[in-house]
Amino acid sequence: MLLDLVLPVECGGCGAPGVRWCPACAAELRTKAADPRVVTPRLDPGVPVLSLGRYAAARRQAIVAVKEHGRADLVEPLAGAVRTGLTQLLTWGLLETPLIVVPAPTRWTAARRRGGDPVTRVAETAVAPLAGVTVTRALRLTGLARDSVGLSSADRQRNLAGRVRVRALPAAPVVLLDDVVTTGATACASVDALQTSGVSVHAVLAIANA
């Protein structure tokens, strides 16, 4: 197509030309998502933290492409991985319906720059076909929270302390969805805010862990 000559299409995972998401990257994402693993971030949120795979290769490239390069076409592959992971956890009985997926909060300046919150878009797309699973944007960050890139574990924890606010109370048990769990600071602050408000948080689910 002429448009492809002007704006070449390439796989968001490996860069292969002529396709937006290649079969090899799709298989990598799907296989890992079907076997969610418990991970142990440096900061413990007090609930199980489950990851759909390492923050590397196709998974990392897709997350970065959605967040930083506007590749909205990659929301569906990431959402498919989340859907697979949730379905497996429900099948194993580790989660039960009714269940509410709460996206981890993001700074409003970052969301505005990205044209919306990518974690929320992934969550909403992921749960659409799942009976008894819904999404509630229950959390927000106050304007004083800084970008966490480059901060140590302790600095990330201080940066978020008291700055994650509950703006809507979910009406059922919750799983917190984050794109990448690194130190666990966001998970800790989010789980604490929800539990302090009386919300039952069953787990944290991350698309990737670093």
Automatic annotation (TrEMBL):
Superkingdom of origin: Bacteria
Keywords noted in UniProt: Glycosyltransferase, Transferase
CDD domains recorded: PRTases_typeI
Protein name, UniProt field: Putative amidophosphoribosyltransferase
SUPFAM superfamilies xref list: PRTase-like
GO MF, one example: glycosyltransferase activity
Family: Belongs to the ComF/GntX family.
Annotated source species: Mycolicibacterium fluoranthenivorans
Gene3D superfamilies, per the entry: 3.40.50.2020
This protein's record includes keyword Transferase: yes
